[in-house]
Each structure stands twice: as structure tokens, then as C-alpha cells.
Amino acid sequence: MSGTEEFRAESTIGERIRRLRKKVGMTQDELAAAAGVSTDLIRKLEQGQRHTASLASLSRIARALGVSIAALLGPAPPAASAEQHQPQIIAIRDALTSVDDILGELDDVDAPDLAELAHAVAHAWGMYWACRYTTLAAMLPRLLTDTRAATHAATAAEAGRAADLAAQVHQITARTLVQFDKADLGHVAAREALRLAGRAGDPLRLAAVREVLGFVLVRQGRYDDAERVAVVTATQLEPTGQVSTAHWSVYGGLLLRRATSAARQGRSGTATDLLTEAAEATQQTGGNRIDYDLRFGPSFLVMQSTDCAVVTGDYVAAAEASRRMPRGSALPLVSRSRHLADVAHAQLRLGRIQAAESTLLTMERAAPEWTALHRLPRVLVGELLTRGRPSTRLRELAQRLHAAPAPRGG
Hints:
The protein is 70% helix and 1% strand. The protein is an all-alpha fold and 410 residues long. The protein has a two-stranded antiparallel ribbon with strand order 1-2. Strand 1 and strand 2 form a beta hairpin. The longest helix has 21 residues, at 133-153.
């Protein structure tokens, strides 16, 4: 049976648990004992009386079966477009806008404690940065439900921590929805993340969430609004005296958001000034960092400098900026993919056809899901198809991305 056939044949978590349990020769009672969950939960999942459980419970069941949680959520189908992920997007929307709390119908029977929830949130962040969007999309509806139940059940002493974890889940949700080209729904998630971050009481978390809102606003084409949010937040956070490295990192990330927003409004001079200021901030942070799930450091400065140059049409500057990427830079895959798309864009505009093709192939090989979801790689491949005689590898890439040759003179 192929991976795709298996994915279709086992459409529920319960069916996968039953198959894996039988494969290792465990009874329902034995699995429940090994996972530290109730036999009733295992039985209801396998019989289809329950369709999911908390991510903490699923993680324990997966460990007891000797598999990853992704094996329970189901193998990822071949890389697909955002439209083909519509069922998962609808499930995320329904969880994001649930009215269960209004009706007093929160499912807190299987709600995780905060330590378990923190583990699940860290796992979700890891999947986001690694471009594992299909698996992440399958996790998010339950994770949103878990955080709603956890914040509802939190004691006064736990309320701040619970709100912070819930804010992070909504940050992840907003970013993921943008990857699926659902920026308007991502805006809903980002605004809820802001509300929760305000309850968490950590100004750096609140600033990082505002940066996520800026990311969403850029994808909505609201460049002025994105810049305004970043300006106000950066002004409030501007370091004075002795501050932590994390503080400098978040502040630097806001400067980069301001720069990319300014570039998209055609204000290249302002963008350059902000990138210079961000470069000074990297002296305070040292290497690349991810603080409050916001990226900053020398490699991210090069990435955004390249992006700003591409956006303003200065492809020579973009190519020069990209060459400043620190040797051995370990950008998260989502960031590296975005950067390679910009590099390929500049190479194509400068007539470096083979280099652009090689860059796009490298990007797709490393991040097939990211490449399939975004429009820019398709557009670039379509243009390359019209330049000379396309190679076999390029034609195969075009087929995988459903990219058509660009119209002549378009």
C-alpha cells in the first residue's frame, strides 16, 4: 500500500491507533497503562466515539506506541496548494472562532496541564519553522481547543502562564494561516493573540505578537498599517540603559518589520536607514536568535535586506546583499525558503537563468510544502520556461508546481 493510499484508508486517529496497537501486540488496557491515559479514551477513539484528544494525551499514546505524534495525526499527503488544504483550514477556522466557551461547553475533561501544553506548543513551533504545514494544520484545531480549556481552568497563579501559552498558539495559527494564503483569517488569530498577550503581562511577548500582526498586515497589502504598528511598538520598546539580549532581539525584529513595510511603500531610503539601525542592534545580540518566537540576528538582517532590495526593484543590490549571508548560516527552513525565493527572483531579473533555476530546485528540494503553497516560485518557474530551452529538471518542477509558461511580453 502506498503512503497516499494508506493516508486515505486510515482517515481517523482512532483507526491509526488501532493499527499501531495491534502491530506492537498491545491490548487497549496495556496501551492505556503505558500511556497514562484511561482505557475509556483509547476505546472511544478506536470506536469513533471520540475523534480526537488533547495533544498531551496523543503525545503520550504516540510515545507508548513508539511512533511520532505525526504518525497518529496521519502521514502528510504530497505537497499541495492552499486550496487542497481547505478542510484543514475550515477546521482551524471553526476552532479559532468556537462559541463553546460562550455556551459553557468547554471540553475540559481531557484538558492538559500547563507543562503538557507548553511541550505541545514547543512542538508546534518546531513544525512551523520546519515548514511541516500539513501536520501542523492537523494539530492546530485541537491545540486551540486545549488552550481555551487550559486558560478557562487556570488558577489565579497560573493565569499569566496560561495566557502566554494561548497567545503563542494564536501566533502560530496566524503565521500558518498566512502560509496558506488566508491572511484575513490570520488577522483574526493575531488579534486574539494580542488580547491574550495583554493578559500574560510580558511586554516582550506583546511586542512579538504585534510583529506577527505586522506580518499579517503586510500579507493583506496593508503596508502603512504594518509600519504604524511596528513604529509605535518599537518606540515603546526602544532600549534604554541595561536591557536583556532578548529585549534587543525583539526590538531588532521590529526594526526589520518596519524596513520591509517601508520598502513595500517604495520608500527605499527609509528602509535602508532602518536596516542600518537593525545592523547596529545585531552588535548587541551576537548571532542569530529566536526570542519570543521572533527571528533576529545577522542572517535575518541579510535576508530582509535582500527582500527590501527585491521589493524596490534593485536586483543588483539584492544579489550583493544575499552574498553577505554568513557562511554556515542556519536559518530556519521557512526563512531560508523565503530568502531563496528572493535570491532566485533577483537572479532571474539579472539574466542569470541557470543560477535562478538551481536556486529554485534547491528550495523545492529542501521545502516542498513551502514551495507548493507560495505563488512566487510558480511565477518564477513560469518565466524560466520562456527563457531558452527549459531543462528536464525545470519542466519537472513546473509540473509539480502546476506552473504555466508566462505570457510573452507579460
